[in-house]
Amino acid sequence: MKKYKTPKLTLVGGGPGDPKLITLKAIEALESADVVLFDALVNNELLHYAPHAQKVFVGKRRGWSRYSQDEINRLIVKLARKCGSVVRLKGGDPMVFGRAQTEIDYAEKHGLLVNVVPGISSYSGIAAYNKVPITERGISSGFWVLTATNSEGKLSADIDYASQSSSNVLILMGTRKLNQIVSRFKAHHPEDYPVALVQNGTLPSEKTVVGQLSNIERLVDQEGIRNPAVIIIGEAARHVRPGYYHEFIGQEHSFISKQIS
Questions:
Q1: What is the pLDDT of residue 244?
Q2: Are the CB atoms for 197 and 215 separated by under 8 Å?
Q3: pLDDT of residue 258
Q4: Which residues, including other chains, have CB under 8 Å from residue 230's CB and lie 6 or more apart?
Q5: Kind plus residue range of the DSSP H or E element containing 134
């Protein structure tokens, strides 16, 4: 007779990219999972922590998605009732631009137990990884963290407010809206106001570009910077090392930095 398992959903933050930045609690959740639903920005190496679980890709890529959010919600409930423990593995922190609340609400409405395991968010993890202080005494006492677009795919109205601030601004997934973002900031800051972009942060393929409002669009185009990338605007951008990427070397996976020629 098959043992009954309590239907359960655990939302797990997979961190900004480097698989070693996942938490012990997240690993425990994956090891005990019966099913793992994972997103496009999740490092697939993390799936090795769930060797016996069924893995289902439910992520979105540019211009294409296998499941809508409503379909993901229904799939979570269906698989939890059938299999038991479902882990919803998301990049970064599930509660930061992760559409977590709609999944939590739907799961709890249908009787699932729900837990959340925090992860290192991409904005803070990528900044720290690159030794970039997003707050600094005497320079910036706070910061803004925004997603570039709203639910309709248009530039977020909050960017207009953030552009008027002297605090550092970090914008996620905004590379395709960079020209609009730069235009908003030029209305309130000088041409030499610092801007940096970090693509594939914390991964071996990490790539950076540093400039100013006056030239960042040209530099991004020149270096071929694409999403996923974090845009850093403000004094913090001065700390990003321009034209560097990290590379794994040896069995210990140590990091070296090389300058892009």
A1: 54
A2: no
A3: 44
A4: 122, 123, 126, 127, 170, 171, 172, 197, 198, 201
A5: none
**Contact yes or no for 216/182 (Cβ under 8 A):** yes
In three-state secondary structure terms, 202 is coil
Q: Any idea where the domains of the chain sit in the sequence?
A: 8-120, 123-246
Low-confidence ranges of the chain (pLDDT < 70): 1-2, 62-64, 243-261
CATH topology of domain 8-120: Cobalt-precorrin-4 Transmethylase; domain 1 (3.40.1010)
Residue 64, pLDDT score: 61
Per-residue pLDDT, 216: 97
57: tokens are: 């890709």
Residue showing tokens 């601030």: 165
DSSP string, 95-126: TSSS-HHHHHHHHHHTT-EEEEE----HHHHH
Could you tell me the two tokens for 68?
């809508």
Tell me, letter by letter, the H, E, C secondary structure of 5-48: CCCEEEEEECECCCHHHCCHHHHHHHHCCCEEEECCCCCHHHHH
- Which residue type is seen at 81? R
CATH topology for 123-246? 3.30.950
CA quadruple 124, 126, 127, 131: dihedral sign: positive
Output 215-222 pairs: Cβ under 8 A, ≥24 positions apart: 216/178, 216/182, 217/178, 217/179, 217/182, 220/175, 220/178
Task: Map residue 168 onto helix, strand or coil.
Answer: strand
Catalytically active residues, by annotation: 39, 60, 173
